[in-house]
Amino acid sequence: MVQEKTFEDIRIQLGFEELKGLDLNETLPKEFGDLPYLRVLDLSRNYINGSIPTSFGHLRLTNLSLFRNRISRSIPDEISDISTLEELVLSANNFIGTIPESFHNLKNLKDFRIDGNNLSGKIPDWIGNWTQLESLYLQGTSMEGPIPAIISQLKNLSELA
After folding, report:
1. For residue range 113-139, what is the model confidence (pLDDT) as tens digits?
2. Rounded to whole angstroms, how far apart are CA atoms 125 and 51?
């Protein structure tokens, strides 16, 4: 029998160990929001389910990667409170709804990936506020409509998928 790992098991081993690809199969602890010095949180390639806790909005992360998990529901508006975010990777999950309107505040973003989710709606014009953006991944969503012309003003954009 394979023993599933939990965040409680990992807490003891943290040190410099990465949290990606550990087959974690549970929800994201809201207590992560109580880590004021955390700058990078990479929980890619696990089996995390549920939703992103609103307490994540208290973090001062530069990088948040939840790539290839089973996270669902809407992307919480509170993520836009992390004004220090440079990389936000939410690809290959089960998010629904639209990109939160409050995300227009994420002006330090360099890498934004939401591909492979069930997101809908139009690509917002305010994406032009992300003047530092280098990578934008939207493929495999149900987003529709024309690509806003303002994207042509993103001079640092080198990857668009």
Report:
1. 999 999 999 999 999 999 999 999 999
2. 26
SS3 state at 59? coil
Please answer whether residues 82 and 64 qualify as being in contact, where contact means their C-beta atoms are separated by less than 8 angstroms: yes
Instruction: Answer for the pair 50, 74: CB distance below 8 angstroms, yes or no.
Output: no
d(C-alpha 27, C-alpha 107), whole Å: 29
The model carries a pTM of 0.89
Q: Which two tokens stand for residue 65?
A: 């990667």
Would you call 90 exposed, middle or buried from its count of C-beta atoms within 10 A (0-12, 13-18, 19+)? buried
Asked if 153 contacts 128 with a C-beta cutoff of 8 angstroms, the reply is yes
Give the gyration radius of the chain's Cα atoms: 16
CB atoms within 10 A of CB 35: 14
Q: How far is CA 161 from the centre of its chain?
A: 16
The span from the CA of 30 to the CA of 54, in Å, is: 8
The Cα 138–Cα 127 span in angstroms is 12
Contact 153, 130 (CB under 8 A): no
Among 21, 72, 63, CA closest to 46: 21
